Structures are given as structure tokens and as C-alpha cells.
Amino acid sequence: MPHKNFAFGVSLVAVVFAALSWAQPPQDKSQRPSPPGTADCNIKGKKVTISYSRPSKKGRKVMGGDLVPYGKVWRTGANEATTLTTEIDLNIGGAKVPAGTYTLYTLPSEGTWKLIINKQTGQWGTIYKEDQDLARVDMTRSDLVVAVEQFTIALDQDTNDSADLVLEWENTRLVVVIKAG
User: Fold this and answer.
1) For residue 39, which of 20, 81, 133, 162 sits 20 to 30 Å off, Cα-Cα?
2) pLDDT, tens digit, for every residue of 124-154?
3) How far apart, in whole angstroms, are the C-alpha atoms of residue 49 and residue 69?
4) Whole-prediction pTM value?
């Protein structure tokens, strides 16, 4: 009888370890359904980087639907919170942003969107604390002619001291100017 209990115990441990390893997200983030993305540029020779995850449309309604509802703060990507890291003080849409690392959220609407620059970092994207907001700035919204399947953030360099921060997904394009602060 002790042999059967030992075999049962070993089997139970094996099942638990298998279940735990199955429940964990892939260690290689590129294998996730929403893989990582980065956008970067140099402003006055200093690096500005945005790190985020790139969910896909997959036939779903994105803007104003369940994925990006209007009137509710959105994580601006998927998985871990989207981060902005800057080696230089910035002016983002009129807001002064000191060099450092921040989380980016957005407040979607049918009209003007708000980019939220938040001081809390390192959290999962759905954990938002409004009292940690550094600034909220307006983004210019326009419609895209060709739909974008996978959420994309870009930093399109304008000059040595400025760039456009661009978000695109589904049929929506959002832009705010960032420049040396």
C-alpha cells in the first residue's frame, strides 16, 4: 500500500507542476498573442523610447467597442503597462515631462482623445491610479483610409528637437507633438 500512495503523490506533484507551467505566460514575449513593440527616436541627441504590447484586431470592433471603450481609461496596448522612457526633459502636447520613466494611458472618445502621462511604473497595464497622473494632453484624431490590424505606436522624427507620437489601430490615427522641454 505505501508504494501506491507514493506513486499517487508523485503523479499529483507532476500534474501540479504541469498545470503551473501551462498557466504561465510564455517567457519569450514575442510568442504572446500581443507581442512587444518599441518606438524610439533621438531628441537633441538623447534617447526617447516607448515600450508596449501590440494587440491585434482579429475581426473585432476596436474603437468604441469592448477593446477600447469610449470614456474609460485604456491601457494603450496590452499586457504590461506601456512605458515612456526619456533621457531629456520633454514638452508633450504642452505638458512639461522631466527626464525619467512614465506609464502612458489614453482616454478614448469619439472626438478628442487624451494622452495620460502617469508617474506610476512597473505595473500591469490595467492597474491605473489617477492620483499618479503627471499630465493629460489632447491628441489630434484622424481617420485612416486603410485599417491597421495590429496596434502600433511610432515616434516620427520631425526635427532634431521634436517628433510626433503616433498611435494607430483599426481606422484611427492619434498624434501629439513631443519636443525638447
Assistant:
1) 133
2) 878 899 999 999 999 999 999 999 999 999 9
3) 26
4) 0.81
For residue range 113-131, what is the model confidence (pLDDT) as tens digits?
Answer: 999 999 999 888 788 999 9
Q: Are 12 and 4 in contact (CB under 8 A)?
A: no
86, 59, 78: which is closest to 126 by C-alpha? 78
Which 3 state secondary structure label does DSSP give 99?
A: coil
Residues 3-43 have pLDDT tens digits of: 555 554 445 444 444 444 444 444 666 565 677 999 999 99
| Residue 65 C-alpha from the chain's centroid | 18
Q: How many CB atoms lie within 10 A of CB 34?
A: 17
Q: How far apart are CA 69 and CA 42, in angstroms?
A: 33
CB pairs under 8 A, 24+ apart, for 128-132?
A: 128/73, 128/75, 130/73
Maximal C-alpha separation, the chain: 78
Q: CA 94, CA 34: separation in Å to the nearest integer? A: 31
